[in-house]
Amino acid sequence: MAETTDTNKPMIWKELVLGFAVIESCIYHSIRTIPIVTANNAEEALFTDNLTRLTKLEEGETVKGVLQVPFPTYEVTGSLPAEGEEFSEVLVLGYEYPGVQSPDWVEVLKKEAANPRRCL
C-alpha cells in the first residue's frame, strides 16, 4: 500500500510480513532470513520481487524453517523520483513491529538513497 502517491514526492510502501524464511547455505556456511510478504493485488505481484525472493535460492541453499512475526508486522520500502526516468530504485528501509515506535520513513529513504556504501 503506497502512503504517498504524488509523482514528485518520495513513495513509501508497507507490505504485510507473514514471517521470515530461514535459509541455510552449504557453500557459505551461513544462515540468512528472507521476509515472506503479501501482495495487495495481481498487478503488484507482477511488478515486485517480494513474491519471488523465496524462489530464487542460490545453489546449495535450503529452506530450514519459518520464523513467526507478531501481527501486524510490515516491511517498509521506498523510492525517490528520478528525473527523466520512468522507474526509480526501490530500497528496503526497514520493518514496523506492533508496539515499536517507527522512524520517519521519508527521512530514512533520503539517507539510504544518499548513502554510497549501502548494499546494492
Could you describe the 3D structure shown?
With 120 residues, the chain is mainly beta. It has one domain (11-114). 12% of the residues lie in helices and 37% in strands. It has two helices and five strands, in the order ββαβββα. It has helices at residues 42-46, 105-114; strands spanning 11-25, 30-37, 61-67, 73-79, 90-96. Strands 1, 2, 3, 4 and 5 form a five-stranded antiparallel sheet that branches. A hairpin with a 4-residue loop joins β1 and β2. The radius of gyration is 16 Å and the shape is globular. The two termini are 24 Å apart. The mean pLDDT is 81.
The helix count comes to 2
The total beta strand count reads 5
Straight-line distance between termini: 24 Å
Oligomer: single chain
Structural class: mainly beta
Give the H and E element order: EEHEEEH
What is the makeup of the main sheet? 5 strands, antiparallel
| Fraction of residues in H or I helices | 10-25%
Mean pLDDT across every amino acid position: 81
Q: Which blocks of ≥5 consecutive residues have pLDDT under 50?
A: none
Note the beta-strand portion: 35-45%
The coarse overall form would be globular
Integer-rounded radius of gyration: 16 Å
Quick overview:
The protein is mainly beta and 120 residues long. Strands 1, 2, 3, 4 and 5 form a 5-stranded antiparallel sheet that branches.
Describe the secondary-structure layout.
Elements: E1 11-25, E2 30-37, H1 42-46, E3 61-67, E4 73-79, E5 90-96, H2 105-114
Antiparallel strand pairs: 1-2, 1-3, 1-4, 4-5
